[in-house]
Amino acid sequence: MMKQYDALALFSGGLDSILAARLMMEQGKKILCLHFTSPFFGDNAAVPFWERKYGLEILPVDISDEYCQMLCSNPANGFGSALNPCVDCKIIMMKKAKALMAEYGAKFLISGEVLGQRPMSQRRDTLNVIRRDAEVRDILLRPLSALHMEALPVELSGEVDREKLLGLYGRGRKEQLSLAKRFNIVDIPTAGGGCKLTEKENARRYYEVMQKVRKPSANDFFLANHGRQLWNGNIWVSIGRKQADNEQMRQYQKESDYILRIEHFPSPYCIVRQTENKPVPAEELQLIGSILASYSNKACAFFTEKKEPVSIKIEHNGNLERIGVEPKRYEQYRELRFEEIKDALQQLKKNMAE
Q1: What is the span of the domain harbouring residue 31?
Q2: Which 8-state DSSP code applies to residue 127?
Q3: Same domain, 177 and 204
Q4: CA 9/CA 11 separation, integer angstroms
Q5: What pTM was computed for the model?
Q6: Where is the NFACT protein RNA binding domain (predicted)?
Q7: Domain total for the chain?
């Protein structure tokens, strides 16, 4: 039989989610923390560390597919400063947590949200929208700000002692730090949600995927997280910046992708993807090979000294071919700057609001 718990807690790895879980454990409740993961947030590798460090039980929960579908379908409650659909994000998590309650015998859910802490997702009206749309109105307990909210059935029944809950409000962290000290939490996690969608650098990476890939999958967004992202129409080129990029990118290559490597010299990993499922023309692969070679100092030095083409291997659908290129960059293959998509994002948000 699956181990049973009193409640399931949403756990980001941030201080507020730690404190919310520990506050309920202090009341003798068995708590299972749910750490949601997607291409934009979450860290499976950190779970064992968090469990040891904070004395919690944590279950990683992958919501990549449903999250990407929501992101690309005009989130009902809009975006934040970049591409962050914070309200709809919480709704997805709450719905998933609710769906897991029966499996673990949980009677209620826990979230570390603090009223007034964040301008988009933690106003009173948006907190109420999240409760309503996720259909968790009577089972979602926010222990850190509970005294500013109506009592839930688990409080009214006495199963949770409301007098031991808190009434935190606003952006200050003084009370959270005091509570952390009480729980002997020495290493305080950095403030902030750790969501890539809130960062302009990542927003410009994801924007092209959302605009040009038909029904983008988690794989597409995971790939967009790594290396250089160059676009020319519907031809998408990902080039690793460092060894870590190369290793990660291999996980996300598809059978239909073109894989380019520099022969005879250390090479960045290069994945070429045609978003309309058409073959990439040979002349475009020639240009991309030149661009790839331009990111290798040794390949550039070889060409300068020997005046001979740099050999590029191209793998596609089980076939291997070689081409010779001159290391060179072409303006038509480039990375977008956030300033270039800023107006388009504003228009997108305006259209959604209407």
Answers
A1: 7-196
A2: H
A3: no
A4: 6
A5: 0.91
A6: 237-333
A7: 2
